Amino acid sequence: MSIANWIFLAIAAGFAGFVDAVAGGGGLVQLPALLIGISNKPIPLILGTNKVPSIFGTSSAAISYFRKVKPDLRLTSYMAGPAFVGSVAGARLAASFPKDVFRPLIIVLLTAVAIYTWKKPHLGMNENLKFTEKRRHLIVAAMGLTIGFYDGIFGPGTGTFLVFLLVGVVGYAFLKASATAKLVNIATNFGAILSFQITGHIWWRLGLVLAIANVSGALIGSQLAIRGGSPLVRKVFLFVTTILIAKVGYDWVVSLNK
C-alpha cells in the first residue's frame, strides 16, 4: 500500500474508535475505509482484518468505562458467552452469505430504533431495570447470540444494537449500556478473529497498526462519554444511528443498480 493509504486508514480507525467508544457504530467508519483502502483484497480478509483494531479499541474503552461505571458482570457474562458463540458461527459463514439479504432489514430496524429513541427523550437517562433477574439473564443471552451472529457475518451497527437493546429492553441508562456493550463486543470480536484466523483471513500487520489508532480514539471517546454521561451518549447514539441508516441505505441502492 502507499503511504497515503496507510495514513487514510489510520485516521479512519482513530475516528472509528472514538465513535464506537461513545455510542457504538465505529464499523460505520472503519469497515468502509478498509473496503476503499484495500479494495483489491478478498472480502473475508477485509472483514477479518477489521476485527483486529476493533477488539483493541473496544477493550481499551471497556477498561476506561470500568474505572467509572461498574457494569453487572454476571449479566454481562450471560450476554457475552452466547455472543461469542454466535460470532464464531457468523464468521464461519461470512464468506458465503449474501450481504444484500441484511441491508433492507437493517435499514428498517435502525429506523425503528432511531424513531423510538427520539420520541422518548427520557429513555435511558436513568436506570429502570425490567423483568426478574432470571428472566433478564435469559433475555440477554438470546440477544447476545443473535447480535453476535450478526457481528460475525456482517457487523455494521453491532454496538448500536447492543446499546439500544440494553436500554430499551433491559432498562439500563445509556452510559451503563455503552459500558456493558463494550464488554460484550470484545467477545464478539474475539470469536470472529478466531474464525477468520483459522481460515487465514487476517492481515495482522495492517490490523495491528490500525489498532494503535483505534485505541487512541477509543480512549478519548470513552473519557468524553463518562464526562457527558447518558445525555451525551444518547445524542451521539441518535447521530450515529441516523448516519448508519443513510450508509446502509446507500450501499443497498448501489448494490441494486449493479
Overview of the molecule:
The protein has 258 residues and is an all-alpha fold. The protein has one domain (3-257). 81% of the residues lie in helices and 0% in strands. Helix 3 runs antiparallel to helix 8. The longest helix has 54 residues, at 204-257. The protein is globular, with a radius of gyration of 17 Å. 53% of the residues are buried. The model has no long low-confidence stretch (mean pLDDT 86).
Globally, the shape reads globular
Q: First CA to last CA: what distance?
A: 27 Å
- Tell me the count of domains: 1
Order of helices and strands: HHHHHHHHH
Main pleated sheet:
none
* Helical residue percent band: over 70%
Low-pLDDT residue spans: none
- The structure class reads mainly alpha
Number of alpha- plus pi-helical segments: 9
Count of individual beta strands: 0
Rounded Rg: 17 Å
**Percentage of β-strand residues:** under 5%
Give average pLDDT, whole number: 86
Describe the structure concisely for a colleague.
This protein has 9 helices and no strands. With 258 residues, it is mainly α.
Draw up the topology in text.
Blueprint: H1 3-23, H2 27-37, H3 43-68, H4 73-93, H5 102-119, H6 133-153, H7 158-170, H8 174-198, H9 204-257
Helix pairs in contact: 1-2, 1-3, 1-9, 2-3, 3-8, 3-9, 4-6, 4-8, 5-9, 6-7, 6-8, 7-8, 8-9
